[in-house]
Design goal:
Distance between the termini: 56 Å
CATH class: Alpha Beta
Shape: globular
CATH superfamily: Aldolase class I
CATH architecture: Alpha-Beta Barrel
């Protein structure tokens, strides 16, 4: 007699693919590894080895020697690149951000020390004037406080050349001036730096998530007004594609979406539309929120850290710039 089975069971049980770690690992659609991470590091021009950033628990500003040590650490952990951002003594700041063009300044010194310490770790340098200006803006301003586009682009081009000459592997314009990628690419080619990569902050939004970073680099109290006339409106998505298209046409090798988690839709649209290496920046505010919630016992900090980083990969990001890189690589290793 044929055995009869009830017909009420589901024809497909998707939970079968979740029931043990081995099958979850085997069928995972996305995988996060240390090779997906870029370590965001704040450097300073003082003698003190490390200075804690109050608004970013766990983040410290490194002096030049510690920056070199961080490069060695990244190499050991399998982190392929470090992005460096400067905090300079306010006495060196002026309206024109001239310290950003100093070939013997903080950033060139860090580049040289880090490349000497760990030549195989990529060094990515921010091209923008806000860490160096007394007014906290990313470029030169007129009497009304409006950021001047073409005049700023000329200065940014010089800044990128200084960084390339010091040995930077990647220059990363984060200023959002129109036309700056083309100007920088032309200058790099003309000055014998054809191998220097450009990572364009092509879709950088005027966001409230940058607050802790501005404290970290010392521009929070200096900023006059806001950056809405040059950074993108958070309401816009199609505009991001226009920005990215323009930067690719001008010679960008890679593009960035910033901030990260609130703009995963932009990451997806950019990566699918252009099929170009697309990075996301898990910015200071995102980092600080996770850290604050973890310190209050509201979330499992390490679990949420890795979950958010994986979400960038799922959205289509090639890699993630994050302050969590060292800690995440330790957990993933």
């Amino acid at each position: 007699m044929t055995k009869q089975f009830p017909q009420s069971f589901p024809a497909t049980r998707l939970r079968r693919l979740r029931q043990t770690p081995w099958i979850r690992n085997l069928t995972a659609e996305n995988v996060l590894t240390p090779a997906d991470l870029v370590w965001s590091v704040i450097v300073h021009d003082g003698d003190e080895a490390r200075i804690p950033v109050a608004a970013m628990p766990g983040v410290e500003r490194f002096n030049v020697k510690e920056a070199a040590a961080a490069a060695i650490r990244a190499q050991k952990l399998g982190i392929p690149a470090i992005a460096i951002f400067p905090h300079i003594d306010p006495k060196y700041k002026d309206e024109d951000g001239s310290e950003g063009l100093n070939p013997d300044g903080l950033i060139p010194s860090c580049i040289k020390a880090m490349k000497d310490a760990a030549p195989d770790v990529g060094i990515i340098c921010d091209v923008a004037l806000d860490p160096f200006t007394s007014h906290g803006h990313d470029g030169l301003i007129d009497e009304a406080g409006y950021v001047l586009n073409d005049e700023t682009t000329a200065v940014l081009t010089q800044q990128a050349l200084v960084q390339a000459e010091a040995g930077a592997d990647v220059v990363a314009p984060s200023d959002m001036m129109d036309g700056r990628i083309g100007a920088i690419r032309a200058a790099l080619e003309g000055d014998g730096h054809s191998g220097t990569l450009i990572l364009s902050y092509a879709a950088k939004y005027a966001s409230g998530f940058y607050g802790p970073y501005r404290e970290a680099i010392g521009s929070a109290t200096a900023l006059i007004g806001d950056k809405k006339t040059y950074q993108q409106d958070p309401a816009n998505s199609d505009e991001a594609l226009r920005e990215v298209a323009m930067d690719i046409a001008e010679g960008a090798d890679m593009v960035m979406v910033k901030p990260g988690l609130p703009y995963l839709d932009i990451v997806r649209r950019v990566s699918e539309t252009f099929a170009i290496p697309t990075f996301a920046f898990q910015v200071s505010g995102e980092y600080a929120m996770i850290q604050a919630a973890a310190q209050n016992g509201w979330i499992d900090g390490d679990r949420v850290m890795l979950e958010t980083l994986l979400s960038f990969k799922r959205a289509g990001a090639t890699g993630v710039v994050t302050y969590f890189a060292e800690r995440a690589a330790e957990k993933l290793g």
